Amino acid sequence: VQQIFKQLFYMINAVALNNLLLRKDVCSWSTGMQLRFNISQLEEWLRGKNLQQSGAAQMLEPLIQAAQLLQLKKKTSEDAEAICSLCTSLTTQQIVKILNLYTPVNEFEERVTVAFIRDIQMHLQERNDPPQLLLDFKHTFPVMFPFNPSSITMDSIHLPASLNLEFLNKV
């Protein structure tokens, strides 16, 4: 059950983050607020079902950071440092793409300046990120089956003749 929810939450993260990276109309402060609220509802549901140790909540980390990136101030060099220290699960390409797509919804917000994006890129240049922008939402984690040794010893097993397993010999 834990592995299923880890996989499911990974897929939720990948599809939502990919949509965020591809759609200019959803890169706004209000979308960041809505995402953060929805993610907190999912985390609360995991706690209620005792699935905290499943790793499912960790699968949402890139989406959480993207939501926070949409909500942070994006003006000064200190803001750039804060973004760089906060967005550790996002690649440099993803951070820059979200900042380029950021669209103010009301008159109190401003577009992200080119100078600010260059400042972010300068701060992140020492990172060794993979060159991918989108997440592979079809990625599947390997299924792990726990090994539970049997208390029955092999010499106590009786094989019925009707199984036609004469080629097996007890040692």
Automatic annotation (TrEMBL):
Sample GO molecular function, one term: GTPase binding
Pfam families the record matches: DIL (PF01843)
Residue intervals of the Dilute domain: 1-126
Name this polypeptide is given: MYO5B protein
Organism: Hemiprocne comata
Source taxonomy: Eukaryota, Metazoa, Chordata, Craniata, Vertebrata
Primary gene name: Myo5b_0
